[in-house]
Amino acid sequence: MSAARPTRLVRAAPYLLVPDVAATGAHYQNILGFEREYVGGDPPEFAIYARDGLAIMLRRAPDRSRIVPVERQGGTWDVFYWVEGLDALRAELVGRGAQLAYDLTLQQYGMREFAVRDLDGHVLGFGEPTA
What we know:
This protein is α/β, with parallel strands linked by helices. It has helices at 21-30, 86-95, and strands at 15-18, 35-40, 46-51, 54-60, 79-82, 99-106, 111-117, 123-129.
């Protein structure tokens, strides 16, 4: 009898409501450097984009009032990524026309970080540990 295989989580993806999956997907691809993995519907109702194996899901919300990014609810990010090469990533994204939500900042919790805002107001944070 073989030993039970341990369980583990292998992937996660934030699920963002957007008014136009095609337009938001193009933004993630052209501005934020994600690659399209899947698009469903015509016009698109759902899509998955990924960068460096990290996925993000986009779902069309027919009622724009249901789209409430975390920042509008008193939070900071809708998605946060720990990265290597923070300065190079910032330069890349800004060079592609990304809108900064806030620029490079040293946080008291030991991270240097910046954030961008997507077409729909969702904020993506990027940080690199200082130690």
